[in-house]
């Protein structure tokens, strides 16, 4: 693929066609390179927990342990397995997004209805952390959005707002129409994001290593799914954030 069509000397139709073919070849080459990188990153992200799991189990079979130690190591192994299945689940979501033919993806929904469904899924977490969710929207909003992609976008953003908020915090979700376009803003008062990390947020597997972030489960694929879904429906996602001061994720549908 690194080969290119030789451009004719004369700038005629044949020249234009050759140039267009070369441009297409470059684009295909870039896509293949991106896929290669993604596969290699994904293998690395799965190999790390897998070796940790192997190490833990090897220690367990080497010699007799106390019941407490067995329980502790098994609990740890289960959490590593959960983490790996989350990565696999997210990778499948990313892969499935490419098969655009799915009729399911044409289905539309009213955004307030979708937000209600998403919040319902997080009832337990919201209750556990005693979060206050403030959902504001003009009742006359009747623009429908593509359900499949909008759900992936809003679910991941709301999940993050919940995950990265401390106990008793409040999260504001505002839905409004600006110049005929639907905008949904999710504002949290959580740990916030460093300036230098903000441009990397949507990269595959990126997680900020600031703060005590390591204890919060995640794999850095949520916002990749958000970005890919937004691209699929021509939506735009903007981030405003300050370390220790919370974040606002705005989606322009
Ligand atoms: P993760 O599974 O790590 O949450 P995401 O792709 O959803 O992966 O997010 C990437 C990173 O962006 C997170 O690890 C975190 O560092 C940062 N981030 C995303 N949303 C927020 C938020 N609301 N508050 C603080 N940090 C966030």
Automatic annotation (TrEMBL):
Keywords: Kinase, Membrane, Phosphoprotein, Transferase, Transmembrane, Transmembrane helix, Two-component regulatory system. Its main location: membrane. Residues 1-33 form the HAMP domain. Residues 41-253 form the Histidine kinase domain. One of its GO terms (molecular function) is phosphorelay sensor kinase activity. It is found in: Membrane. One of its GO terms (cellular component) is plasma membrane. Its EC number is 2.7.13.3. It catalyses: ATP + protein L-histidine = ADP + protein N-phospho-L-histidine. This is histidine kinase. It comes from Christiangramia fulva.
